[in-house]
Write a structure and sequence with these properties.
The protein is α+β, with helices and mostly antiparallel strands. It contains 8 helices and 7 strands. The protein has 3 domains: 58 residues, Winged helix-like DNA-binding domain superfamily/Winged helix DNA-binding domain (Arc Repressor Mutant, subunit A), CATH 1.10.10.10; 45 residues, no CATH class; 92 residues, Roll (SH3 type barrels), CATH 2.30.30. The strands form 2 sheets. The protein has a 5-stranded antiparallel sheet with strand order 6-5-4-3-7.
Length: 228
């Protein structure tokens, strides 16, 4: 996490009206208490009105307001729904990121809208996934972000195995099933691989190139044309 992002997270945490200790902040942000103390001093030095002291806890001075986000109820419900989907069907890192995002929104919402974040009117029950599927999603997502080639031990609909090296371009969620949109080195064509049919995978050290005709927009064009 960048220092600027960490400072913003501290301001959000202190803006919730509760006294927060340096230890709590350190655990939340995965840094040392010494780093938190230094960050608090930096924030105070830049004019953020923080009350408290080391060993006791901190909070933003009463009356200091972080500018509220201007969401209406429908927009908040859309955000909550997206977070619930990420928590229910995403990989562990994505679910945690969704929870952090909701915390950021909660910290700067006007009081009259905060109840919408805790609303049980929008529920996304999780569906059982094959063992290891959530972790595999995370591995594939990281490979996409880093443009890393993936080795897949894949099973077709009849259970027959095949080994592929692919260039992962996108993760697509179809309601109950995730697929990986990728360029397949074996077939020299775009293919879609179901996550629940990947027996094992391995991220390879080499990156795949940004090559004309093998980009994400080309994959979607192949899907539209029925070639994938």
């Amino acid at each position: 996490m960048r220092p600027a992002d960490r400072l913003f997270q501290i301001v959000l945490a202190l803006g919730r009206g509760r006294v927060v200790t340096a230890r709590q902040l350190a655990e939340q942000l995965a840094v040392s208490e010494r780093t938190i103390y230094r960050d608090i001093q930096d924030l105070m030095g830049s004019g953020v009105p923080i009350d408290g002291e080391a060993g006791v806890g901190y909070r933003l001075r009463r009356g200091y307001q972080i500018p509220p986000l201007m969401f209406d109820v429908a927009e908040l419900q859309a955000l909550v729904f997206g977070v619930r989907v990420a928590q229910a069907y995403g990989d562990p890192d994505m679910a945690e990121a969704a929870d952090r995002a909701l915390g950021k929104i909660d910290a700067v919402l006007p009081e009259r809208l905060r109840s919408e974040l805790d609303s049980e009117r929008l529920v996304v029950p999780p569906v059982a996934q094959p063992p290891g599927a959530a972790e595999l999603l995370g591995e594939v997502r990281d490979a996409i972000n880093q443009r890393r080639r993936l080795f897949l031990d894949y099973r077709d609909v009849d259970g027959n195995g095949t080994e592929r090296i692919v260039w992962p371009l996108s993760l697509l969620y179809w309601g109950r099933t995730w697929t990986v949109g990728a360029w397949c080195e074996l077939r020299q064509a775009f293919r879609s691989f179901r996550i629940d049919r990947i027996a094992s995978s391995r991220t390879l050290g080499s990156r795949f190139p940004d090559e004309a005709g093998k980009r994400l927009q080309d994959y979607f064009a192949a899907v539209r044309d029925g070639d994938c």
